[in-house]
Amino acid sequence: MFKHIREVSVAVRDLDQAIQSIGATLGIEPGGIRSDARPPIQSRFATFKIGDSGITLMESMADGSPIDRFIRRRGEGIFSITVTVRNMEEVTEDLRKRGVEVI
Description:
Elements: E1 2-12, H1 15-26, E2 33-36, E3 43-50, E4 53-60, H2 66-74, E5 77-85, H3 88-97
Parallel strand pairs: 1-4
Antiparallel strand pairs: 1-5, 2-3, 3-4
């Protein structure tokens, strides 16, 4: 069903602090800090590449943004997992049947 994980996105309250923590813990640096203020994204983010995959830390830039809502409801944590698949329609249907929110 899945070929590989492309990216794991983590919602954080303080991007700069999270970058320092990941950098110190894993000994790697992000490929820079980017931001996108356009709705619905409205976040600052930094990606740590690990082979063909990455860990992206995401901080909200606006009240009510998806990251802001996520953190208010659940706290910091895994926001999304992006995977590569062989058959998008088949995997989407299967995951939805299992109750997974597919975006």
